[in-house]
Specification:
The chain has helices spanning 3-14, 22-28, 31-51, 53-59, 61-74, 89-94, 105-120, 129-133, 161-169, 201-211, 216-226, 232-241; strands at residues 145-147, 152-156, 183-188, 195-198, 245-247. The chain is mostly helical. Helix 3 (31-51) packs across helix 5 and helix 10 (201-211) packs antiparallel against helix 11.
């Protein structure tokens, strides 16, 4: 038997998906294997609960762990780095029948995922207001900036996903009911710690355009087309203060372990 065949079969057996093979049947019949299987599954569930704490707060631990078990069986970890496990969990929740009555849940899960990606991303030196002050009116429109490698942003059209996420992350109890309209989030890591801010529709479109390599003029035009009443000067100041942008020619470094 090839080693890869054994490894694939063993992994499938751990998740209850073993093929019909005599050697696997013999393996699964061992009393200790069930213990090992449960330990592996529990590790996956624990990792998902750690990586999606806001989702868990919203639905409760029992519901979350039951859903996480289903996810883990269908989408097991690709490696042993469980701190990054669960990239597809938001999409899973979008198609998960028991979550149908919680239509905002996938968007909240995406923000939990944004936090993980922001935390694990590479480092780079962000531009600030000093950079902006040194640009001339002739050169600024054709200058290009790109999102910081740790920056993550998201817009939810139908639900106040960021407000829900923010309130649960910080343990806040709003005095008034949430206004049930769409909102946006920006997560950055300016000083080795993940921070988050609300961001407008124009801000999300601007960051998308910068990520696509557009000039500041083109990115600003896209942002204002999406939200004509946006205060672009305030928006760019917010992004610079958040450490969300870097020059296009600045290399990124691997984040220290």
């Amino acid at each position: 038997m090839q080693l890869s065949t054994f490894q694939d079969g063993f992994s499938a057996a751990l998740l209850g998906q073993a093929a019909d093979a005599p050697w696997l049947s013999a393996l699964e019949s061992q009393p200790g294997f069930a213990v090992y299987r449960n330990t592996v599954l529990k590790g996956c569930i624990d990792a998902l609960q750690a990586n999606y704490p806001t989702v868990c707060q919203l639905v409760g631990e029992d519901w979350f762990r039951a859903a996480a078990a289903v996810f883990a069986r269908t989408q097991p970890p690709g490696d042993g780095l469980l701190v990054d496990y669960g990239a597809g969990f938001a999409d899973f929740l979008a198609d998960f029948a028991p979550a149908a009555e919680l239509p905002y849940l996938p968007a909240v899960a995406r923000l939990d995922r944004c936090w993980t990606e922001c935390h694990l991303a590479a480092d780079a030196t962000a531009v600030d207001r000093h950079w902006l002050a040194h640009q001339t009116p002739d050169t600024l429109p054709q200058a290009s900036l790109r999102p910081h490698p740790a920056a993550r942003w998201a817009w939810c059209e139908e639900h106040p996903a960021y407000a829900l996420w923010h309130n649960h992350r910080e343990g806040l109890t709003p005095a008034e009911p949430l206004e049930w309209t769409g909102d946006g989030a920006l997560l950055t890591r300016p000083h080795a710690e993940v921070v988050w801010h609300p961001v407008s529709r124009a801000g999300v479109v601007f960051l998308d355009a910068c990520a696509d390599g557009h000039t500041l003029e083109a990115a600003a035009t896209s942002a204002l087309n999406a939200e004509p009443t946006a205060d672009f000067a305030a928006l760019i100041s917010t992004l610079l203060d958040a450490g969300a942008l870097i020059p296009t020619d600045l290399p990124t470094d691997s984040r220290p372990g």
